[in-house]
Amino acid sequence: MKIFGIAALFAGALIMLTGCSKETPATGGESGHAATQQTFKWKLVTSWPKNFPGLGRGPETFAEYVNTMSGGRLQVQVFGAGELVPGFEVFDAVASGTAQMGHAGAYYWKGKMPAAPIFSAIPFGMNVTEMNAWLHYGGGLELWRELYAPFGVIPFAGGNTGVQMAGWFKQEINSLEDLAGLNMRIPGLGGEVFKEVGGVPVTMTGGEIFVALQTGAIDATEWVGPYNDLAFGLFRAADNYYHSGWHEPGTALEFIVNEEAYNALPADLQKIVEVATRAVNQDMLDEYTARNNQAMQKLINEHGVKVKPLPDDVLRALKDATQKVLAEKSAQDPMFKKVYDSYRQFYEGVAEYHKLSEQAYYNNR
Amino acid sequence: MKIFGIAALFAGALIMLTGCSKETPATGGESGHAATQQTFKWKLVTSWPKNFPGLGRGPETFAEYVNTMSGGRLQVQVFGAGELVPGFEVFDAVASGTAQMGHAGAYYWKGKMPAAPIFSAIPFGMNVTEMNAWLHYGGGLELWRELYAPFGVIPFAGGNTGVQMAGWFKQEINSLEDLAGLNMRIPGLGGEVFKEVGGVPVTMTGGEIFVALQTGAIDATEWVGPYNDLAFGLFRAADNYYHSGWHEPGTALEFIVNEEAYNALPADLQKIVEVATRAVNQDMLDEYTARNNQAMQKLINEHGVKVKPLPDDVLRALKDATQKVLAEKSAQDPMFKKVYDSYRQFYEGVAEYHKLSEQAYYNNR
């Protein structure tokens, strides 16, 4: 940690200096840093249980990267959901400056900004590779920043789960009729599409799901995928696990930063924050990719979970309903239309290319 | 750039100090940094033309990240292939310390280390998502470091192209017979598999390909994908563009660092190097994903390129030959066997899970 080295040397120079002059600048307290070498302490609030696999590891990794890269000049402390603020109040906490930073999913803020869910996942939309390309080379991140700017909040891509599983159902789903009146925990645009085909979408943070499912307050839930679903023990509360992920085909998480706090950082620390988010964005997907299959095998072999695809008529109905919901949203909210137009144009192109590359390779190998 | 701020202040203190004492430490030259705040200047040599789209942008982005995050304490200068050393001498240059760092592809070093190509791409092997997960959460990176350790070189994942195209052929390929005696530029294990089915693999750096193809020194070439292939103008030298990528289904690039140079860095700069490589690893894929489709449309619509799949019998023969080559390599080289065993075990698991997630989603959406 060279940074402490120079601080000590500088403090030493000052001590010698004070021997012959009183014109010394004040030292920066215990750290010995002068004002120009200021130490920043940031709170990072999250929507996840502290240290939760994948989602919760992302912000911890971020903090570790930043603390080390900055030589301790930017110290980030991570809070689990409910430790400082509830999981669904992360955005407000960052906007108000209660915390300098947050880690969450953009679709949690759809009540405030109808376009927000586009920056986490759209049913039958882009997968993780496509989403990252749109955000960083297709104009997506600029639109995301435009959306959050009125709140003084700056978003960064903050990891991705890959394709999420369709979820856990207490009863088997054999046809579209089985969804009628079903209470299911499903957030974002997926929830609105689910309503369109006759279901009843419910929103709650991850930590509340297990009890709701076990007590029968909900009949079904999606959460993430085998790695996280196993960690919550959802298999103890529902028997049927459907894999045909449709509602969140590559869910982006977000790091959000209070604009004033960010602007107060020197350029090197700003870049450290930015690059650390990019690295975590990749790292979280790597963790999910490596751990999901192990967890799936455990669910099947140790817990006797039945894993199955959704029936074709259900998938078809969901796909049709998705188009309807997206068209309605575009008609209702000009910012939704602006963001979705960019998303759709990029998606059409990249999906076409993936037919010749990623998709063709999956099917050829 | 606070770092310059404190340097100036420190220099100021020294100037005042020298007014009443001669016991001053030497300043660190123009930068004003003392020894504890040492500035490091690194050369980064690459196997690509300077600033080449994707491959060449990766090291430039890395340098920009590191220069800014370190406040100028670690200054990285990037050299294109042939500017300081030839493209195929990057590894030796880093091992010897001629350059502190390199950016290349591991399969270029297969003459030195038979197992090296596993860390770039295996025919019919893992795609980019799977490869990154194996490297960072499946033990892959540890094995890679074990392989390079005897040379005093530390590897980091350094970007990925995604699925590469099967390549450019002067004549149409209608059956396996059309490959017999064909001179094709194809590196790594793909080249050995190509030889197994009757072709003649040739190795050369990217910069040499166009002339070789145009003069007929080679009959065919793979390079990367539409984005890079368009930049080289390969469509001017061959008419047939085959998309069914099989030989490099998610090619990892590498950053390599001279071990002594790395160990000489303080902990904050070491972490800055590590995290910057992770961020570039993601960023390069984003660039390829966003640009490949645009380039493919340009090749088809503006340059009249015919894009087609390889015949089924060719793909089948290549797949069989791949198994043979991998078995032979495992029998010949214990380190190849050790690395490939880890790779294969991870691949079998993750491919099984991707059947229910990424692959299923591509086919359902």
UniProtKB/TrEMBL annotation, chains A, B:
Span of the signal peptide: 1-21
CDD domains: PBP2_TRAP_ketoacid_lactate_like
Pfam families tied to this protein: DctP
Matches recorded under InterPro entries: DctP_fam, SBP_TakP-like, TRAP_DctP_sf
Signal as UniProt keyword: yes
Keyword Signal tagged: yes
UniProt cross-references to PANTHER family, sorted A to Z: EXTRACYTOPLASMIC SOLUTE RECEPTOR PROTEIN, PTHR33376
Superkingdom classification of source: Bacteria
Name recorded for this polypeptide: TRAP transporter substrate-binding protein
NCBIfam families: TRAP_S1
Keywords, comma-separated and alphabetical: Signal
